[in-house]
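Researcher: Good morning. I'm working through a list of sequences from a screen, and I'd like to move beyond sequence-only analysis. For each chain I'm collecting a predicted structure so we can compare shapes side by side. This is the next one on the list. No need for commentary yet; just the structure.
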Amino acid sequence: QVQVVESGGGLVQPGGSLKLSCVASGIIVATDAIDWYRQAPGKAREWVAQISGTSTTFYAEAVKGRLFISRGNDKNTAYLKMTNLRPEDTAVYYCTRRGTWGQGTQVTVSS
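Model: Good morning. Structure tokens for this chain:
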């Protein structure tokens, strides 16, 4: 069984930065693929980024060059570094690993 917990969200001004964390526990391996998704109010959940088992990264066009996914030095942690944030990035951000979703962390971009 796997548990996933996201953290690091908050309120930030346009152009600002945040770093989200995703900590997994349970039966996990260092080469799991990890994905970030987001869901804005009134919209469907959308995929944001993935880091593969070989640490290759993939991004949605809307975030390419501004959001960056990475792994921590341990096998449990992944990050989503968010830069040059825009109001349209406002959403609940979710991490998923081995088919398990976290509860999400709210990111609000507003002046």
